[in-house]
Recover the amino acids of this structure.
C-alpha cells in the first residue's frame, strides 16, 4: 500500500502524559500537513511542512504541541502534558507542490487520541 | 479570511434518487473550491476541484458541482444515489497560497434502500 500511513491508529492516555503520532507520507510528496478533527466538525489545519521545513503553525497548536519532519520524510506530532481537550482525531496528509496540485491532499486514516 | 458554510448537516435520500449537498463560500479572492468525502474508518478522499476553469466540475463516482459566483455557491450533486455514497462530505476552500485548506462542518449522507 503506497498511501499515507499513520500510527498508532488509536491512543488512550491519561491526562498529563505525553503522546507521539507518526505519519509516513506518499514517498514522492514533498508537502506534509497535520489537521485535527473533533466530533461533528470538519478538519482544522494545524501545521504544514515543505520538505523538512515547517512553514506555518496554526494558533491551535499550543506550546505543548511540536511537529517535526526530519530529512523531509516521515513526520511526528508530539503532544506534551495532554489535556482532555486534546481528545480528537489527528489527520496527516501529503501532496505534491505546484498549482496543478492545489488542494489535492492525500489523507491517512488518522490517529484517534482519547485523553482520560 | 476564506470560509465555507455547509447548509445541511444531514441529508437522507432513497437509493436511485438525486443527491444535493449545499455549500456557500466566502472569499476575498477568486477561490479554489473542493469537495472531499470521508467514508467510515477511511481517509478523506478528494471528489472534485474547481480552480477557475470550467464552472461545472465533474468528479469521481458520478458526482459533479457547479461554481456560481453570483450566488457564492458550490453545490454538489449526483443524479442517482447508491448505497455506497453513504458517507460524510466536506466542502473545502483553499488559501490563496494554496497550501492551507479550510473545511466546512460536513454533511452526513444516508441512503435508504
Amino acid at each position: 500500500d503506497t498511501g499515507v500511513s499513520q500510527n498508532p491508529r488509536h491512543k488512550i492516555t491519561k491526562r498529563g502524559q505525553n503522546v507521539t503520532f507518526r505519519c509516513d507520507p506518499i514517498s514522492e510528496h514533498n508537502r506534509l500537513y497535520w489537521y485535527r478533527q473533533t466530533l461533528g466538525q470538519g478538519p482544522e489545519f494545524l501545521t504544514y511542512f515543505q520538505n523538512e521545513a515547517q512553514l506555518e503553525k496554526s494558533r491551535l497548536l499550543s506550546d505543548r504541541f511540536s511537529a517535526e519532519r526530519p530529512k523531509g520524510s516521515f513526520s511526528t506530532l508530539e503532544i506534551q502534558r495532554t489535556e482532555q481537550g486534546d481528545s480528537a482525531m489527528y489527520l496527516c496528509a501529503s501532496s505534491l507542490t505546484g498549482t496543478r496540485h492545489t488542494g489535492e491532499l492525500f489523507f491517512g486514516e488518522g490517529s484517534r487520541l482519547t485523553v482520560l | 479570511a476564506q470560509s465555507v458554510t455547509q447548509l445541511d448537516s444531514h441529508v437522507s435520500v432513497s437509493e436511485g434518487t438525486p443527491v444535493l449537498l449545499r455549500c456557500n463560500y466566502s472569499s476575498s479572492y477568486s477561490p479554489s473550491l473542493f469537495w472531499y468525502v470521508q467514508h467510515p474508518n477511511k481517509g478523506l478522499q478528494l471528489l472534485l476541484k474547481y480552480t477557475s476553469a470550467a464552472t461545472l466540475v465533474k468528479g469521481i463516482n458520478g458526482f459533479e458541482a457547479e461554481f456560481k459566483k453570483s450566488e457564492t455557491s458550490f453545490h454538489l450533486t449526483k443524479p442517482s444515489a447508491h448505497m455506497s455514497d453513504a458517507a460524510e462530505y466536506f466542502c473545502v476552500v483553499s488559501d490563496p497560497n494554496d497550501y492551507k485548506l479550510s473545511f466546512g462542518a460536513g454533511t452526513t449522507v444516508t441512503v435508504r434502500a
About this structure: The first strand of chain B starts at residue 3 and ends at 6. Chain B is about 0% helix and 55% strand.
